[in-house]
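Q: My collaborator sent me two sequences in one message, no labels, and asked for predicted structures for both. Can we handle them in order? The first one she listed is below.
A: Yes, handling them in the order given. First sequence, followed by its structure tokens:
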Amino acid sequence: MNQIAITKHHLHKPICSLLLVLIFFTSTYGQTQTDSVSGSKTNPVAHPKLIKTQGTDKNQNLACGLMDKAGNLWFGTSGEGVYRYDGKLFTNFTTKDGLNSNVVHAVLEDKTGNIWFGTDAGLCHYNGKTFTNIPIIVADRSYLYSTTLNNTPSSKIAVWSMLQDRTGNFWFGTLDRGIYRYDGKTFARFLDNDGVKNDSGIKPLWVERILEDKAGNIWFGGRSWNELGVCRYDGRSVINFKPDNEAWLRPLLQDKAGNIWFGSRKHMLYRYDGTAFNRFAEKEITDWVFSMAEDTAGNLWFSNGKNGGVTCYDGKNFKYFTVKDGLNNNSVWCIVKDRGGYLWFGTKNIGLCRYDGKTFTGFSE
């Protein structure tokens, strides 16, 4: 009896200490934490979740994404602002933190490390500490718009696509306002009396995607191109392509082999080999493709924005992934590859999940 009593006495203190530690972690786990720089809400390290804070409904999307040079992942949404994931925590930036709109269509990292956001309210960028609104200001002249919609200084032009080309110039595709080029100091609207040869008379309006290929050509595409399809700018002239009379083409990706892929409304996918546009896998892919990625093994991944999940193509065969396989939603809007080669899928209902080559892991509530 004495021996047992002594043993209990010696164990009492460490057990109490252990209980205190467990109580501490239990009370703090799941609580909202605060980012020391921005004051924005983040969620815990143990199993991070992307938490909605703005009350959006199930029809809103995680629409775009980016991995920056430091390895952080950025995800833009159609109502919840933008999220940054540093491998441990999600930080949610909204208008309360200086973002100019909670509807984010595009994310870009420039050559100096600033993160740019194309939103319903125009442009802003983040330097790691603060957000700065960048109004699109050009000369008062117009070939597209009536005098009531001419180019007055405005930060309210909705920006849907962005690119910084190899020379350092920025390109911004807008909703119903065409394309703007920015040299870091001034804006100019592309094809607005700028000396570019434009034999087709292209007048772009809603520009959803911009892509620079390996040769330095810049491709523009979107929903409303006056039935002109997609156009390519080589630095001197601009020409348009309209395969199969398709007026809605979005440049998505140039793969390692040099092929350029385009999402299409009628035929879903086109592959351009530098010579011709060819319809691709019409029987295998029957949903609109909003995003593409090429993984470390060279497989191509296609996001199906309506309700088709994601499709993987290894050069010969197709493999399909849906909610039955662990995808959190079958309406997939963006794909981002991280530093480790994992693929992240942004979906409807502000959903997010990661695929490690074997399993899907959910990162949204």
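Q: And the one she listed second?
A: Here it is, processed independently of the first:
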Amino acid sequence: MNLKLKNLILLLFLILAFFLINYNFLDSKLKGFFPTGNSIFVTSVVDGDTVKFQKNSIRLLGINCPETGEEFSSEAKNYLIQKIFNKTVLLEFGKDKKDKYNRTLAYIFFENENLNSEIIRQGFANPYFPSGKDKFTEQFFNAWEECILNQKNLCEPSTNKCSNCISLKELNFKTQKVVLENICSFSCDLTLWKIKEEGRKEFYFPSFVLFPSSQVSIIAGKGKNSSTTIFWDEGVVWTETGDTFFLRDNKNRLVFWETFNY
């Protein structure tokens, strides 16, 4: 066997050895470029409800996490990093495939676990179905109920003395009006308490006291505030196809929540 042939065989052997040693690394990278079926390789985690493979964004469907900088936002992001960063996951789609930012909407599964649901169970997100009921709506609200039972993170209850005083008397989708009542025999200072729907829209009470056995209306739109009516500078807040009302105290602890039309 001549020297050139020996060198060629040695080179081929080294190439084969290099490929075998680095197979797992190469395989994971290739999966990122060429997803098999509905599988992707997660190359970065943007926040608690958005991940990427290469330059493609995946928005986790059916959940809404706190915005960056808000309480529990970093915990939600770290939860996803620990679970699926640099790992291959499976995607399952609902009735909406894209959002208005052209992100792919999907349920993410890892090791047979629905991570969207798990993020809710951990108290890092609430259920969010802006287009109405989807295949996992019931499962996600069950996860939220479990979170409430365990009082975890976003589900931690308020200890404010007025947390048992404020009740929801009305939520009208057509007029976009919410009516709250103080059922206690003492006044409740609601300054910086927060009303939130399932998505990003939230309303903070200005300096405001709700007197005993009194009501206040919060109306989406523009207008002049009074002792009984406060305007929320939004066009439409409440979604008639299904929505959830959240009330939080000035420490961001949950006073109560109610779901409608699911």
